[in-house]
Amino acid sequence: MKTSSDPPLLDQYGALLGKPSQIQDYHYEEIAECELPLIDLGGLRSCNDNVRQDCVATIARASSEWGFFQVVNHGISSKLLGEMRREEIKVFETPFVKKATCGLLNNSYTWGNPTATSLNHFFWSEAFHIPLTKISDEACFGEFNTLREVLQRFAAATSSIAQLIAGVLAENLGQPEELFEEICNETTCFLRLNHYPKCPKPGIFGLAPHTDSDFLTILHQDQVGGLQLMKDSKWVAVKPNQDALLVNIGDLFQAWSNNEYKSVEHKVVSNGKVERYSIAYFLCPSYDSLIKSCREPSIYRKFTFGEYRKQVQEDVKKTGQKVGLSRFIL
């Protein structure tokens, strides 16, 4: 049953479904469930160098073969994750009109895809996109001050994990571990709160297929499921693990590593019976940061993060979808 907090997604969906030319886009398929590589980050803190190097190699292998993996013993307490979940639910339960108009969380609220012309470009979800620099700004949170306090702790913890993993991946390719600390920090990274309401129509995307445009993403998701990724040219469903955080490689790491690490296409499929929540941390550089391969001969030409984002936005505006790294191949 639709509530006052739900965005008017069904109205938008109905308009698209009413176009005969779009009916062919509407589809649903059963796919196999997979268990991603599960990595204990405690190995990176081991005094035994062999244990540590085995962990580094496992992370690098998962980044090359899957582009996705899960981590446990990551240092974020179940208590903090539970607090984050409760605060996230609370803010999404705010009436839609208020979310859309009151400037909440840096006026970052988005829902669906109002410009979609195809069901393949439509998605059944809502989100808050929060730059880390805004988390300390009380004016952005209004009555949700407890959310701000929890977000501060969650952001600090996930930032440490992201830098740790990025350092390991750099080390594996013979580069300085602290490389990404210099270009990815509080002024460039952000969090996104995601909510996928119950969807009365099966097969609709909660989030359309895409790759992430950052270096890497840390995701905390609930037990509902719905995340799918491309593996060996087939979609596979990711089995949720309540004890793990999910990590995926972004476009910038694929370009920087000269295709050693893979930025893999993924999507979220909506659920007709239960709603889904997640929160993602995106490790991003400044817009003027130059992305170039750490190995030669390079597959991609050099580009800035700002140039990459601009090209992605132009492609989405013209074609309805992201083109991504193929635009920058030499």
From TrEMBL:
Classification via PROSITE patterns: FE2OG_OXY
Known EC number: 1.14.11.13
TM helices/strands, residue ranges: none
MF terms in GO: gibberellin 2-beta-dioxygenase activity; metal ion binding
Pfam families: 2OG-FeII_Oxy (PF03171), DIOX_N (PF14226)
Domain of life: Eukaryota
InterPro entries assigned to the protein according to its UniProt record, in alphabetical order: DIOX_N, IPNS-like_FE2OG_OXY, IPNS-like_sf, Iron_ascorbate_oxido_reductase, Oxoglu/Fe-dep_dioxygenase_dom
Keyword list, A-Z: Dioxygenase, Iron, Metal-binding, Oxidoreductase
Biological process according to GO: gibberellin metabolic process
Reaction it catalyzes: gibberellin A1 + 2-oxoglutarate + O2 = gibberellin A8 + succinate + CO2
Residue ranges constituting the Fe2OG dioxygenase domain according to the UniProt record: 187-285
Enzyme class, first EC level, given as a word: oxidoreductase
PANTHER family: 2-OXOGLUTARATE (2OG) AND FE(II)-DEPENDENT OXYGENASE SUPERFAMILY PROTEIN-RELATED (PTHR47990)
Family designation: Belongs to the iron/ascorbate-dependent oxidoreductase family. GA2OX subfamily.
Name this polypeptide is given: gibberellin 2beta-dioxygenase
